[in-house]
């Protein structure tokens, strides 16, 4: 005996000579027998019983003296309603087998033979109506299987051959209308061990209209396949041994033709056409092994041409398309041309033209697929750019034009008015680049070496072409002596530069040729004596500079040449004694600065030398 922790019996077991013998029982904790079974010489024998805690039988049956199930075995739901009934002979399923819904309604009845379903098997809906009727042989479906909905309408008819779908199969809608017809082979198995699709295959919609129809031959499509959309033809395809072969046609929902293609052994070969929904031709051409060859045309929905391409008649091995070969043209939607040209063996050749609003916008010349020869761009029929290419690289003189018809400051501009000329080599600026004004007078000249501004640079006055400024550039940086001139040819400045910064002597002049300023620079900063002159030639001021700051003595003069002020700077600030004078030479003030601020005693005089004021800071 074994007991629960509560002290109640949990199990009762009996033995004879250490072998199970007699009645064995286990209990629920409430004392109700859970399982009762009998043993004889260690073998189950006699009646077997299982109960729930309420004492309701769950399972019951008999064992023979060999410990094998024998006769009817029954199971029940917790409320006592039958669940199943199975018959055994010496432990083997043999005979009738029944199962029930919890409501007590029969769910299935079948027959077993040597542990396998054999013969007719019936399954039911819970309302008692037949759900499925089928036959088994040695545990495998064999023969006709019929399936019904809850209203006893047939919804499926399937044929089996030793567990495999074989022959005709039908599926129906709940109202009994045919939904799908499928046919399998009945004698030859496929590699997967099943019978392959073989024969007519059909599919219908709920209104009985054909949706799809085709034929299979030993698992692959073979023959005509048709598809329908709400009763109207959607497509027709011809197949041969699993490959598209022959004419293929598709339609719009309006029943209008959508496309026509031809196939040979799975690849598009022959004429190919497609259409817009209103029946207007969309594209047409010829294919070889699914690749366009020969003349190809496409169109807009208006019927106007969109593109014409000529392909080679053969396709290179491992190529996804044939080479362009022959005339090429493209149009805008309004019918205006967009681009025209020629291909030879897949490469552009000869003159190619691009258009906008019916006018040429670009002319290109190709040789063996590369730009070679004249090139031009246009705007509203007026030249914009002209030049030459050699092997896809700009070369020679390129000219840019003013393509506008007028300018608010100049007026009407003649076609071909040059804006700029540039010399190229190997697709880089190399040589002169010159700029011109509306009257075609040169106003700037630059020099380049392999795309970098290097060499002489000059600017000119547009009024008379007179030189305005000139110097040297090295790698985009000003260097050496730079000079400038007034419009009448008189020099306006001269300056020495190093790596783009003023470095060395600097001179500026008035228009009358009189020196205006001379100075010394170092690395872009004033360094040394700076002298400025009036236009009369008299000195205006003189300062000492150090690394960009005023440093040392400075003198300033009136226009009559007499001293006006003098003193010293320390790091850009006035420092020490400073004197100021009237234009007549009389002293005007005297005093000292500390860091740019007046300091100490300051005295002031009138222009006659009389003391008029003193200050202390």
UniProtKB/TrEMBL annotation:
<dbReference type="InterPro" id="IPR011652">
    <property type="entry name" value="MORN_2"/>
</dbReference>
<protein>
    <submittedName>
        <fullName>MORN repeat-containing protein</fullName>
    </submittedName>
</protein>
<dbReference type="Pfam" id="PF07661">
    <property type="entry name" value="MORN_2"/>
</dbReference>
């Amino acid at each position: 005996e074994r007991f629960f922790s509560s002290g109640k019996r949990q199990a009762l077991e009996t033995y004879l000579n250490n072998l199970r013998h007699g009645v064995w029982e286990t209990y629920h904790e409430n004392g109700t027998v859970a399982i009762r079974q009998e043993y004889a010489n260690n073998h189950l024998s006699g009646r077997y019983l299982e109960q729930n805690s309420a004492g309701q039988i769950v399972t019951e049956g008999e064992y023979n003296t060999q410990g094998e199930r024998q006769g009817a075995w029954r199971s029940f739901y917790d409320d006592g309603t039958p669940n199943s009934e199975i018959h055994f002979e010496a432990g083997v399923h043999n005979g009738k087998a029944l199962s029930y819904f919890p409501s007590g309604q029969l769910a299935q009845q079948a027959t077993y033979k040597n542990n396998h379903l054999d013969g007719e098997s019936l399954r039911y809906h819970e309302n008692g109506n037949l759900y499925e009727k089928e036959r088994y042989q040695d545990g495998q479906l064999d023969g006709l299987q019929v399936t019904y909905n809850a209203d006893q309408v047939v919804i499926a008819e399937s044929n089996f051959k030793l567990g495999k779908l074989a022959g005709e199969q039908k599926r129906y809608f709940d109202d009994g209308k045919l939904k799908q017809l499928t046919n399998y082979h009945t004698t030859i198995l496929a590699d997967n061990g099943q019978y392959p699709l073989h024969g007519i295959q059909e599919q219908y919609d709920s209104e009985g209209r054909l949706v799809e129809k085709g034929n299979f031959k030993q698992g692959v499509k073979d023959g005509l396949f048709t598809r329908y959309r709400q009763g109207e033809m959607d497509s027709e395809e011809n197949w041969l041994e699993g490959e598209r072969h022959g004419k293929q046609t598709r339609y719009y929902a309006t029943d209008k033709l959508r496309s026509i293609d031809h196939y040979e052994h799975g690849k598009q070969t022959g004429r190919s056409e497609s259409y817009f929904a209103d029946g207007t031709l969309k594209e047409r051409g010829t294919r070889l092994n699914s690749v366009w060859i020969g003349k190809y045309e496409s169109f807009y929905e208006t019927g106007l041409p969109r593109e014409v391409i000529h392909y080679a008649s053969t396709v290179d091995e491992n190529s996804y398309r044939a080479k362009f070969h022959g005339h090429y043209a493209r149009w805008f939607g309004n019918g205006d041309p967009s681009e025209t040209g020629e291909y030879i063996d897949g490469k552009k050749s000869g003159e190619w033209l691009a258009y906008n609003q019916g006018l040429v916008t670009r002319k290109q010349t190709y040789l063996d697929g590369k730009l070679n020869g004249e090139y031009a761009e246009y705007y509203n029929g007026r030249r914009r750019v002209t030049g030459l290419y050699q092997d896809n690289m700009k070369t020679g003189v390129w000219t840019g034009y003013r393509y506008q018809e007028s300018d608010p400051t100049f007026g009407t501009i003649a076609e071909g008015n040059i804006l700029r000329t540039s010399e190229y080599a190997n697709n880089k600026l190399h040589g002169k680049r010159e700029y011109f004004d509306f009257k075609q007078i040169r106003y700037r000249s630059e020099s380049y070496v392999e795309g970098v501004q290097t060499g002489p640079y000059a600017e000119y006055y547009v009024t008379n072409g007179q030189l305005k400024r000139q110097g040297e550039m090295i790698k985009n940086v000003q260097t050496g002596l730079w000079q400038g001139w007034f419009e009448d040819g008189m020099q306006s400045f001269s300056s020495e530069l190093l790596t783009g910064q003023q470095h060395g002597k600097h001179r500026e002049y008035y228009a009358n040729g009189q020196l205006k300023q001379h100075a010394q620079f170092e690395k872009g900063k004033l360094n040394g004596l700076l002298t400025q002159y009036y236009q009369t030639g008299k000195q205006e001021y003189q300062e000492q500079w150090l690394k960009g700051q005023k440093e040392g003595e400075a003198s300033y003069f009136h226009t009559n040449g007499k001293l006006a002020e003098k003193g010293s700077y320390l790091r850009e600030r006035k420092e020490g004694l400073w004197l100021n004078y009237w234009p007549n030479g009389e002293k005007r003030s005297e005093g000292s600065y500390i860091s740019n601020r007046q300091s100490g005693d300051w005295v002031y005089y009138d222009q006659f030398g009389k003391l008029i004021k003193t200050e202390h800071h």
